């Protein structure tokens, strides 16, 4: 009798978990509006920066619309995402090579700002972080009261990159990793428009 009860419990748990996975990965995915050629929604995020090789909140913000007139590359990443961390050095190289483009890497899905900063300041977790204080790109953070990722059309893919042209129009969005060459192929034609 105990085996039957166990099988029924496992079966119910499987159905519940499967239903949740289907709902959150397929049914609840489509957000209205934000696609390529749409006007980008505005957002403001807090910024993080290194001071004496230690990351902290700067007390400053980055606002997308305040930087109109420039091409903006917005990268969404998470501390748990290996692909995100892998591509950040290429975004930094791009930011250094093309200072006329705003490049911002935004983290918000990982928890509270203090948790993200603690992670970024822990050199034992990832050797790459030791070089982050030399990065030229802007690091941004949004809290639990915002959904910048969703507002910008994020669909559950990490990393996600959105490119906004000088007029505030979304010209590229993807949930795939990008390298320096890919960034140049997407962004450089926009600089020559």
Walk me through this protein's architecture.
- This protein has 193 residues and is α/β, with parallel strands linked by helices.
- The protein folds into 2 domains: 1-30; 33-191, Glutaredoxin (3-Layer(aba) Sandwich), CATH 3.40.30.10.
- It is 34% helix and 23% strand.
- A 7-stranded mixed sheet has the order 2-1-5-4-3-6-7, with helices on one face.
- α3 links the parallel β4 (102-107) and β5.
- The longest helix has 26 residues, at 2-27.
- The protein starts with a helix and ends with a helix.
SSE layout and pairing:
Blueprint: H1 2-27, E1 44-51, E2 54-63, E3 72-77, H2 82-97, E4 102-107, H3 113-120, E5 138-141, H4 148-151, E6 160-164, E7 170-174, H5 180-191
Parallel strand pairs: 3-4, 4-5
Antiparallel strand pairs: 1-2, 1-5, 3-6, 6-7
Tally of individual domains: 2
CATH architecture label name of the largest domain: 3-Layer(aba) Sandwich
The helicity comes to 25-40%
Indicate the radius of gyration in whole angstroms: 19 Å
Overall spatial form: globular
Which CATH C-level class of the largest domain is it? Alpha Beta
- Distance, first to last CA: 73 Å
Beta strand % = 15-25%
Query: Low-confidence runs (pLDDT<50, min 5 residues)?
Result: 26-31
Main pleated-sheet profile: 7 strands, mixed
By DSSP (H or I, 4+ residues per run), the number of helices equals 5
- The ordered H/E elements are HEEEHEHEHEEH
Structural class by sheet pairing and helices: alpha/beta
Task: Determine the CATH topology of the largest domain.
Answer: Glutaredoxin
Mean pLDDT metric = 80
Q: How many distinct beta strands?
A: 7
Please, what is the CATH homologous superfamily of the largest domain? Glutaredoxin
């Amino acid at each position: 009798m105990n085996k039957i009860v166990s099988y029924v419990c496992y079966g119910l748990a499987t159905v519940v978990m499967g239903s949740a996975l289907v709902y959150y990965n397929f049914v609840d995915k489509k957000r209205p509006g934000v696609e390529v050629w749409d006007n980008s929604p505005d957002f403001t995020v807090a910024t993080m920066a290194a001071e004496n090789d230690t990351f902290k909140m700067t007390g400053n913000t980055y606002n997308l619309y305040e930087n109109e007139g420039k091409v903006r590359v917005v990268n969404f990443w998470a501390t748990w995402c290996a692909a995100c961390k892998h591509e950040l050095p290429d975004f930094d190289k791009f930011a250094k090579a093309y200072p006329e483009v705003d490049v911002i890497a935004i983290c918000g899905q990982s928890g509270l700002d203090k948790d993200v900063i603690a992670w970024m300041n822990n050199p034992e977790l990832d050797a790459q972080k030791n070089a982050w204080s030399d990065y030229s790109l802007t690091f941004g953070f949004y809290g639990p009261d915002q959904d910048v990722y969703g507002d910008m059309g994020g669909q559950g893919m990490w990393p996600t990159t959105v490119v906004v042209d000088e007029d505030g129009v979304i010209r590229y969005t993807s949930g795939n990793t990008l390298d320096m060459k890919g960034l140049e192929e997407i962004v450089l034609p926009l600089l020559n428009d």
